[in-house]
Amino acid sequence: DAGITQSPRHKVTETGTPVTLRCHQTENHRYMYWYRQDPGHGLRLIHYSYGVKDTDKGEVSDGYSVSRSKTEDFLLTLESATSSQTSVYFCAISGLGEGYGYTFGSGTRLTVV
Amino acid sequence: EDKVVQSPLSLVVHEGDTVTLNCSYEVTNFRSLLWYKQEKKAPTFLFMLTSSGIEKKSGRLSSILDKKELSSILNITATQTGDSAIYLCAVGTSGSRLTFGEGTQLTVNP
After folding, report:
1. How far is B99 from chain A (nearest CA, A)?
2. What pLDDT score does A97 carry?
3. How far is residue A32's CA from residue A75's CA, in Å, rounded to a whole number?
């Protein structure tokens, strides 16, 4: 998918455990984003990054943290997974930001039991 | 709080029909409006509309931005079963962020 990969593709985890999802890009894009997609809500922004070590919160950031130590990697961590965090998580990248089109990864389906 | 609303939420048509999908928005610092198509996996980019480019067309798909009415439509003519997907509308604002609508689930029956 245009130089963006997410891992893992699927994960089942238990309530209360920490989980880290990885987004890796080979496009050298400045902007990276984490969204979750749920029925009835569409795509909602969790966190985003506008450069190495520069991150900011989105509309549904509670219970999530992110890190970006290299341009190519953006990690999303669920500090203590809850059933409400069962969702499909998409990473996206953008070279221009400011509302320009994103390229999305293939998604990670996370189930918290 | 930025808000994007799409309608209808779902639509079932027959091959050959023409469909119109709607998107309205209430945001601060509007920069662009984008349409995406989502089949089984990741959304794929269709169009981006801005103040300097309010109409786009690609094959059977076209889109118009109405900045006065704060809305956009996506038209698909002569629909095919391959057009079955979720169509997402998103609005870009300052700060490099996109706010998405809930999406319209389009089903095209043969």
Report:
1. 7
2. 54
3. 10
